[in-house]
Amino acid sequence: MLDPAQRAEAADLLRAAQLDRAPVDPLTDLYPGIDVTDAYEIQLLNIRRQLRDGITVRGHKVGLSSKVMQQMMGVDEPDYGHLLSDMVLPEEVPVEVGRYCRPRIEVEIGYVLGRGLPGEGCTTADVLAATEYLVPSIELIDSRIKDWRIGLADTIADNASSAGVILGAARVSPAELDPADIAVVLRQGGEEVARGNTGAVLGDPTEAVAWLARKVASYGVRLEAGHVVLPGSCTRAVDVGPGDEFRAEFAGLGSVSAVFV
Questions:
Q1: pTM to 2 decimals?
Q2: Could you tell me which residue, 209 or 151, shows the higher pLDDT?
Q3: What is the pLDDT of residue 73?
Q4: Interhelix angle for 4-20 vs 36-52, to 10°?
Q5: How wide is the angle at C-alpha 103 spanned by C-alphas 99 and 108, nearest 5°?
Q6: What is the mean pLDDT of the chain?
Q7: How many Å apart are CA 114 and CA 257, to the nearest integer?
Q8: Are the CB atoms for 63 and 237 separated by under 8 Å?
Q9: Burial of residue 51 (number of CB atoms within 10 Å: 0-12, 13-18, 19+)
């Protein structure tokens, strides 16, 4: 475990890497004693810094929500990061690749809450009852760690490698569409580059949202009305560069597009 000064130093490194678009060596190399508790505290140091600057919390994202990714990282539960107000990107505005270190996209449904979720003991039934609507989304991920050489503590400290989210225009109630079985196709310039199903996320992405509500409650945080929750990707991550155009199509839910310059 790290001491407070080391945590503050690690948070400063990640914040500078984000602002300067200059990735740093893995924290797991720089601080061999770092653990998951340290990593979440480092993440929170940078989140609090941005909140003091007037940024607000718009929601959260769940990472490592597939069994394959958990096995690769050697963990038995997901992780999470924050979605801030300056991370919600309008679909109609091209995304500047130069704002990021090494961006990629993932495809997932988003849950927009109509009311707050309970913390400890939150169930999938609670999530479905509280969800105002589902929305198609493309998550922009990025790593402030060189070459994406991340371990578990690296990605958690780095806000779960989150960088932004683009929400599509469609709004569908979970009473009208089963969020556990939505086929998804990602196209680049009209050609299919990835395919998946929301069931790849813990068998049911609603489970990931319930897990998140229980997890953040242990830190004194609640998922509130109006929050957007991304439960995890149902496709592989795809690298992006200037000139790339993507469209994610969700069966029964519509689509969302992203253009990069």
A1: 0.93
A2: 209
A3: 57
A4: 60
A5: 120
A6: 92
A7: 25
A8: no
A9: middle
